[in-house]
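Run log, item B.
One chain of 217 residues. Sequence copied directly from the ordering sheet:
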Amino acid sequence: MLEFFIAALVIGIAPGPDNLFVLAQSATYGARLGFCIILGLCTGIAIHTCLLVAGVSALIAASPTAFFVIQCLGAAYLLYLAYKSFGVKAGVVHVDSCHPERSVTESKDPVKSSGVPSARSLYMRGIIMNLTNPKVILFVLSLIPPAVRLDRPIHPSLQMAIFGGEFILATMIVFGGIALLAGTVKKFLLTSPKANRNLNWFSGAVFVFLAVALFFV
């Protein structure tokens, strides 16, 4: 099973939409809140693993209608996030080290300010992003079942659960590194309203890109 974990690490390191998503969000909100996104994505992987064991993932993948509905829901949610990102006022982000979810962005208009999403909100964003991404369903189906071996003294369902856990661990390691790197860059941009505006636009552009990419499975 070590081979599977190494493969999961390599897949996680390879450039892809999820890497870009974590990078954009961590660069925008900082490493700590970036980890909330990662926890949400990993929770989504856990749910996908449960659906795989239950046989639901195979049914969804085999149904063009169900697959298309998930694509539409995912694209709609991503475009909504893009709209929110593009609408953020340019300003300076002040981070509360004790309560990062209370950090606020001071807009150029002193009367108005834009709040940074809470940790819970970003956690849920990660879950929804993962569950409404049909590519994850296909990825889990193509990665985990082929690794199951009937000659092992472990039930196939339990093997799939273990592989799902290894996939989550690999995701935490790789995406955690990305979040830390992006968060470090973010610290140097806290005093630049223009840089924060550009980060929000970059994040919005990433959401639009991911929304379009959902239909090219």
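Observations after the first pass:
- The longest strand covers residues 91-94.
- Confidence is low (pLDDT under 50) at residues 90-114.
Flagged for discussion on Thursday.
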